[in-house]
Amino acid sequence: MRVHWFQHVAFEGLGSIEPWLLERGHQISVTRFQHWQPDSAAGPGPVGDGLPDLDALDLLIAMGGPMSVNDEAVHPWLVAEKRCIAEAIGRGIPVLGICLGAQLIASALGARVGPNPEPEIGWFPVQAISVPGGEGEAGFALPPSLPVFHWHGETFELPAGAVPLARSAACAHQAFRLGSRVLALQFHPETTPEAARALVEHGGHELIEAPFVQSAAEILAAPAERYAAAQALLDQVLTALCASR
């Protein structure tokens, strides 16, 4: 399979998604929006910064970042990115969005994205939402409650036709799907210990005491089994999306 992903800052990568894809022989290319030049002639490729050729794509992944999807005046590439996501969805290409990426999917589909009532940073559980046509039809099943990693201050409303999959105490919308080929996750199942350390290093100024904000020490003390449980869910998600193509 040919997989393309969107990166927004250098310190937020694919995490554990990358080895999962490589172990299965999938081809990976990337758009690094932190290097984006609107008039660049660079095409898609392993180190390219152009938008992907959707005709040659089997899966699109949009990852996280500290900016808002509403910051189009500051980051004009957001317009092109959201247009690309909307076109990929319209063509039936599987799309996965994580954190900012989930908000980008929602925004690309016309839903509002704005401040969450509380910032949510650290390890907090998400609860599965049981609705007709819910997570089971997506090809994976969320457990009733799963501690996962979060780092966000904004949240999305649900686009038209979206099926909600999860919530948390701090955030009403933690995940949704649209059909079997579009999945948006507000939380970070791909986080590795190295990725958590990078976020703490670059975003430590956001760790201001609040009901749903953990300290750097609490974040980095998470046991290995917590990462493993999130990875087990991610394995199901990626398997389902790859199969949907």
The first-to-last residue Cα distance is: 9 Å
Domain count, please report it.
1
Mean pLDDT: 93
User: Could you tell me the strand content as a percent range?
Assistant: 25-35%
Which architecture name does CATH use? Answer: 3-Layer(aba) Sandwich
Question: Can you tell me about this structure?
Answer:
The protein is α/β, with parallel strands linked by helices and 245 residues long. It has a single domain, classed as Rossmann fold (3-Layer(aba) Sandwich), CATH 3.40.50.880. The chain contains 6 helices and 9 strands. The chain has a 9-stranded mixed sheet with strand order 2-1-3-4-9-8-7-5-6, with helices on both faces. Helix 1 links the parallel strand 1 (2-7) and strand 2 (27-32). Helix 2 (77-90) crosses helix 3. The chain is globular and about 45 Å long. The chain starts with a strand and ends with a helix. The relative contact order is 0.16. The model is unreliable at 40-48 (pLDDT under 50).
Describe this structure in a few short sentences.
This protein has helices at 17-23, 77-90, 100-108, 193-203, 216-220, 224-244; strands at residues 2-7, 27-32, 59-62, 95-98, 113-128, 145-156, 163-168, 175-178, 182-185. With 245 residues, the protein is an alpha/beta fold. It starts with a strand and ends with a helix.
